[in-house]
Amino acid sequence: MQLLIPTSTRRLAPSKPFHLHRTSQCFNFGKNLILKRCYSQPKRGSYASVQPEHIHALRNILSNKTSLLTSIKGCDATVESVSESELDSFNVDWMGKYRGNSKVVLKPKSTEEVSKIVKYCYDHNLAIVPQGGNTGLVGGSVPLYDEIILNVGNMNSIRSFDEVSGIVTCDAGIILENLDNYLAEFDYTVPLDLAAKGSCQIGGNIATNAGGLRVIRYGTLRGTVLGLEVVLPDGQILDSLSTLRKNNTGFDLKQLFIGSEGSIGVITGVSLLAAPKLKAKNVAVFSLDSYDAIQRAFIKTRQHVGEILSAFEFFDQAGHRIQQVHSRNPKKIFDAGRDAAFFVLVETTGSNKDHDDQKLAALLEVLIESEIVTDGVLAQDTAQFTSLWELRETITEAAGKTGKVFKYDVSLPTSLMYSVVEATRKHLAELGLYKGEGSDGKVKSVIGFGHFGDGNIHLNVISDSYDPEVQSALEPFVYEFVAKHRGSISAEHGLGLQKAPHIGYSQLPLNVDLMHQIKSILDPKKLFNPYKFVYRPPLE
Amino acid sequence: MQLLIPTSTRRLAPSKPFHLHRTSQCFNFGKNLILKRCYSQPKRGSYASVQPEHIHALRNILSNKTSLLTSIKGCDATVESVSESELDSFNVDWMGKYRGNSKVVLKPKSTEEVSKIVKYCYDHNLAIVPQGGNTGLVGGSVPLYDEIILNVGNMNSIRSFDEVSGIVTCDAGIILENLDNYLAEFDYTVPLDLAAKGSCQIGGNIATNAGGLRVIRYGTLRGTVLGLEVVLPDGQILDSLSTLRKNNTGFDLKQLFIGSEGSIGVITGVSLLAAPKLKAKNVAVFSLDSYDAIQRAFIKTRQHVGEILSAFEFFDQAGHRIQQVHSRNPKKIFDAGRDAAFFVLVETTGSNKDHDDQKLAALLEVLIESEIVTDGVLAQDTAQFTSLWELRETITEAAGKTGKVFKYDVSLPTSLMYSVVEATRKHLAELGLYKGEGSDGKVKSVIGFGHFGDGNIHLNVISDSYDPEVQSALEPFVYEFVAKHRGSISAEHGLGLQKAPHIGYSQLPLNVDLMHQIKSILDPKKLFNPYKFVYRPPLE
């Protein structure tokens, strides 16, 4: 049998920007909003507007003319003048949901350039949006108004690599896949894998504490990031770029910046513990009768293949049916189990294929004998490996083809995780909006799938349109359900602009207050990525 | 072959409190210092002294009379009056190096009691030392003066356990071994293992970001701690006790408290991701000719047994010889390789003993064929398992029997790690203090051993006495060497009282300033664990 590597996975489409806190007045974003919706947009802060003299000064900081793009007229010939639309790839998020109105994009080539830019902006009261690959899902990586965009994509070098320890140090702007390819030459891999790997950047991954598919194997970035270099909002360079696995000398400052979404500085350098790249891969899909059976299957799986487990994903019957309708792969790989209530995908990654095969076979036997699973299939070749992964990964795409999708990315305690789907179905049915899967109600389908091993479920509610009645039925219902069970309204996508107003569903007031104090220490002028994350307007 | 569990490992003896920053005046601790040494003791802060009326008020907060111990005379009969010496187990650290002079020990039984105590102390300007199992190595867990001791040992219940996810929530005062025993019933284990497990407490482990023997397998506590409940210095209860693996809703506040050494609050509750307990265990010891060979062995080991590797320890010839002289085990298990320059201990933990045996045998073959190792032995039974671990673990004990030991616990980039031993030998030789191993110089032996996989080496310099000349030769030499190579002067033991003045060797001024700002937010009166960690005296 060949060694098989799974195909890149498909990123889940982001949720739409629903507004939870009803206001008496309904704003709209005007030019700034692509997807128009009732939303109380934060007022523009009292920041300076970028003028030609700012452009001139910023240009003089940069070593290269092409590092500054501006649509502001009247600048001298030393800058790269572009049309407004040429800034779209920086002003608009990758899903086309959020549009900013920045007229200046800076693409510095060194930490020193970043530092000088930021210092200048600090002195001149200019707001900044740090930007990596701009693949975020919550409107966190594009401006809301005319903030300057500070894109680190031109900083993309490997600084050092220690082949013994697997510790790599690199610029923040290196694309995740490029970093992984570099490490692969030394039989290492980045301990992070997500669908946007071809365009997202490691600095942005860390700034958003990206989760993805391998958390069950490698843990989160909070354990694997060893050090960061950050330019603080006043332009100072914070060197916390340790390459050590153990360092107990004071507060671990880098943790503040992991998942800080560009709110307290811009990450310019990264030190990361790469994982040894093990080459034996297996994947199996099981069908199960109940959610309880998934939990029992998970326990058995960890017992039998614990040390080689690299994914434990699940999806429900409704999701599977939709996927089968829109399957790109006409050959039904798992037809026998198609009417099961639930499905689980187990992937293993190890150093010895024979051992892994035996372990997985033993697991399968146990699961079938104990009647935890009703059926199962184990990939025998590359094509089957890909086909089995598609059962899980093309659900999002299939949902999009089925109708308009209301999406929620939440964490819940494992035992309760699927109850958010059941409760939502019941609630929608009671309101007369849902009459069962594929019925003619306003809601055609309610599906649940996700990263079981991480307690992270994706709830998708599919309707014919983005019907306000459905939206009102879902919110705050879903958020309240999550809050009631001490879940998280954002498991891995962050707060950004979209969920910033809703932080109270997952964090208590004291916690939020403390977050604001941390923000205030580091960004007293609130210049960094305003209106998002834990933002409160500055005092006038 | 039987399934073997390694014996509990021996904790390394802590370093002595050397002073780096020479002062013109030499203080001594007087009554407070057990090991008298030149040291610039911080001045007592302008805190209130505990009076009988404080005792009375604090007693009224507590639900149980035995929760308050005091040696202050003149308190009423509702408190537990004890002699000063009866407070020694709280005032003196476990190595007998540091002695505080507290007259009050509080042992609350609930978070609410802790909160009320702390609020009272805040209002009355009383300083507090939070205390767990008091097994710290740097004088961080005992008072310096008369601070109130807040011991959480009476809070030791499991609050919840999710058998599917392995997430356990418990009080901070539960003893690590008790927690591990509880989890073992469900085939889980705490992802942390250290010699003090029989007396250290999980809250203290987290407050000091304890490392130990399993970092190579499970990573640090920064990845495995999911949530914390903390009583802040003003008495407010910070509930960050999430039981979720993924939660991207704002700054990850719990990270501030991991490794904060009681400086910004007292941890009262803990949520932790337990690891599945896999039962197949193997251990092997190899001899090698050079430090470079250890690095090559490590790469091969991760390739062959990567997913089951649970320890990769090393020690040098000097350490091995000392261990052999003082071995408790007269049967020499690895006599053949005794003259090798270095030794490596590899432990594996997996779910299938046959597979692990095969992998380890294959590794051994590769290591011998490629001449990376010169010899090796694989444990065949429980006795051999124990004996092989003793080769590594009794080095500390043997060093103590050989003479007085100057000890350093440092992190360095892997490739440079052993050079701290070589440089120290050279430096001492140049000063005429070291004439080779076992010679008649003031320094009899310089040995290096530690957690290779974590980049954490223990440098032990053995002398006939704690000779000031040797001390002056070692400090700041060792710290400067570590700083020059961007290492950490405290890999896993923390700063405490001992290393607080030396933070500058591993952290830049900007970083330290930021740490002070964080401290100031949370503990504006500097009441919590004063004089330690990132302490600066309060403004008068």
UniProtKB/TrEMBL annotation, chains A, B:
Matching entries from InterPro entries are given as: FAD-bd_oxidored_4_C, FAD-bd_PCMH, FAD-bd_PCMH-like_sf, FAD-bd_PCMH_sub1, FAD-bd_PCMH_sub2, FAD-linked_Oxase-like_C, FAD-oxidored/transferase_4, Oxid_FAD_bind_N
- Gene Ontology molecular function, alphabetical: D-lactate dehydrogenase (cytochrome) activity; FAD binding
Name the cofactor(s).
Answer: FAD
Keywords, A to Z, come to: FAD, Flavoprotein, Oxidoreductase
Q: Which N-terminal stretch is annotated as signal sequence?
A: none
The FAD-binding PCMH-type domain sits at: 98-277
Give the catalysed reaction(s), semicolon-separated: (R)-lactate + 2 Fe(III)-[cytochrome c] = 2 Fe(II)-[cytochrome c] + pyruvate + 2 H(+)
Instruction: Spell out the GO cellular component terms annotated for this protein, sorted alphabetically and separated by semicolons.
Output: mitochondrion
Sequence similarity: Belongs to the FAD-binding oxidoreductase/transferase type 4 family.
Name by which UniProt lists this protein: FAD-binding PCMH-type domain-containing protein
- Give the source species: Clathrus columnatus
